[in-house]
Amino acid sequence: MHVRKAAVYHRAMAPFVYKYDAETVHIRLQTERGDIERVRLVHGDPYEWDAENPEDLDWNFDPAKAKFWKTTMTEMEYSGTDGVLDYWFVSIKPPNRRVRYGFELTSGEEVKYYTERGFYDEKPVDHPGYYFSVPYLNAIDVFDAPEWVKDTVWYQIFPDRFANGDPSNDPEGTEVWGGTPRYTNMFGGDFQGVIDKVGYLRELGVTGIYFCPVFLAPSNHKYDTLDYFKLDPQFGTEEKFREMIDVLHENGIKVLLDAVFNHVSKDHPYFKDVVERGEASPYKDWFHLKSLPVTQEPVPNYEVFAFEANMPKLNTENPEVIDYLLSVGRHWIEKFDIDGWRLDVASEIDHAFWRAFRTAVKTAKPDAYIVGECWTDSQEWLLGDQFDAIMNYLITESFLQFFAVRKTKPSDFVHDLSRNLFTNMQGVNEVTFNLVGSHDTPRALNRADGDKDRLRLLLLALLTFSGTPVLYYGDEVGLDGGQDPDNRRCMPWDETQDRDLFDFTRKLIALRREHRALANDGDISFPYVDDEKNVYAMKREGDGTYYVCFNNSGDDVEFPVLEGARGLDLLTGEHVTEVNLPAYSGTIIQVIERND
């Protein structure tokens, strides 16, 4: 065997190397799948040398007497594959907060040394300049997301559809609760409804609420803002909003608001001023106008969200727009103590604005959580100077294709999960917004053709994976729905709720909270994957060892994960020495005794 050099890759930047905390550096390497048998990290302080006579290197360092750069060899762990590439990982604590490093690669009888300058047959030790570098571990450069997010399970609420607690604020034409959702109809959900259902939320065990927009807007979805500083009266008053936040906080539930800074409603007063006054409007540079006067037919002569003429795009490079939107970000934190922002269409706004937004928000509340709506690889937003997280749609479809649609193999699914984990820094993975459905997608149960066994497997996978999981309201009781607007049905508050599914979801949330290795204090690996049987097991190892087993087949299957050990099935409470799962089911096994 030979080292396949073309597939060996590392750069001295995230996510290949990064500062995990004020004293720890994480380093990753990728190689061709199955090519490399062993990787050792070659590392050392660039200013620490050896010499033939150690007395030559006292504190009065004389480079002329130095013979060898002093290095240490540390074993790197094989951390998985995405089906094409293998990934290797090591965590080190440089004693002087600086390090030069390279890699010793073993393939069969061949050993190569990979450095920033290329490959070598012998380890270069005449000078550290060959090697990759972390010049200094400055604490301010560490990716710093709020610690509380790692333990949060979110519940997404579409405000008009969760609960109508106060009919007196219903907008004109409000329809009977539970009717067919359309693009324009209203059902009266409000802040009082959320207050009334806090007991339900506590029973379920969620610890964060992500609200779709609550600001003044003409639509039922409120993504076409009229005034960022006014709550829509159909949801309640400022006093009621404050009461709701206080009640949620008293019950240990954080509040995440949705902001749309990419665009506004065509009826926003500033855009209307441009329509009416043209060149004389002080707001003409607030938008991306192609010409004046403003026209919408046959197509708008201004930039919009998607192809929506009723949603003109804001110019977030304009200093006045920047000041205006930053004041919005601060206002709802300073006045109402919200806990963070979910940012709509975040990837279409410039990075300079998001850097300024982060500074403004974190100054107002240092542990506020900032999550952007990005549907693709989002590394450039996740370097610590913009977002804490993104909505992890990159793996949403992977979850759905395996469990709900059942069109992918276990190995392909596991490779997707592994690739997603390797794409980001560990700190990002611990707080990323993981979901299997939202107001922008068909319901998970709909994708599963109404099969609740498939939905249970989805929930088991979501709630035992790293990150901060998000439940779309109603999924826990079997709420169905197709593409928008059908995915925004009213929350059922009657006998149609599937309480068995609710109890299953509640138990998973409780287990995630009780066993921290199932959340973000445990490493992830996939020790058992069988495409022929359509099953796999995920291993979570931290304060204990756990196997999360998934039988996605129509047959009973035995999982060879205990191997003579004894385990506790956390879903049934039974002690087991072997794991047998019926068709389309899963469970969590905690290893409690090993025979070795």
Write the layout of secondary structure elements.
Layout: E1 17-21, E2 24-32, E3 38-44, E4 49-50, E5 68-69, E6 72-75, E7 77-81, E8 85-92, E9 99-107, E10 110-115, E11 118-120, E12 132-134, E13 154-157, H1 159-162, H2 191-196, H3 198-204, E14 208-211, E15 215-216, E16 227-231, H4 238-250, E17 254-259, H5 269-277, E18 304-305, E19 308-312, H6 319-336, E20 340-343, H7 351-364, E21 369-372, E22 389-390, H8 393-404, H9 410-423, H10 426-429, E23 433-435, H11 444-447, H12 452-462, E24 468-472, H13 499-514, E25 523-530, E26 535-541, E27 545-551, E28 557-559, E29 566-569, E30 575-576, E31 579-581, E32 585-593
Can you walk me through this structure?
- Strand 7 (about 75-80) and strand 8 (about 85-90) form a beta hairpin.
- The protein is of the alpha+beta class and about 600 residues long.
- Helices cover about 20% and strands about 25% of the residues.
- It has an 8-stranded parallel beta sheet. Strands 3, 6, 9, 10, 11 and 12 form a 6-stranded antiparallel beta sheet that branches.
- It has 4 domains: about 5-140, Sandwich (Immunoglobulin-like), CATH 2.60.40; about 150-260 and about 320-520, TIM Barrel (Alpha-Beta Barrel), CATH 3.20.20; about 265-315, Oligo-1,6-glucosidase, domain 2 (Alpha-Beta Complex), CATH 3.90.400; about 525-595, Golgi alpha-mannosidase II (Immunoglobulin-like, Sandwich), CATH 2.60.40.1180.
The second-level CATH architecture of the largest domain is Alpha-Beta Barrel
Parts with pLDDT < 50 across at least 5 consecutive residues: none
Q: Please give the order of strands in the largest beta sheet.
A: 22-21-20-17-14-13-24-23
- As a percent range, the share of strand residues is 25-35%
Q: Can you count the beta strands? A: 32
| Straight-line N-to-C gap | 34 Å
Morphology call: globular
Structural class: alpha+beta
CATH superfamily of the largest domain: Glycosidases
The third-level CATH topology of the largest domain is TIM Barrel
Q: What is the count of distinct domains?
A: 4
- The CATH class of the largest domain is identified as Alpha Beta
* Average of the residue pLDDT scores: 95
Largest sheet: 8 strands, parallel
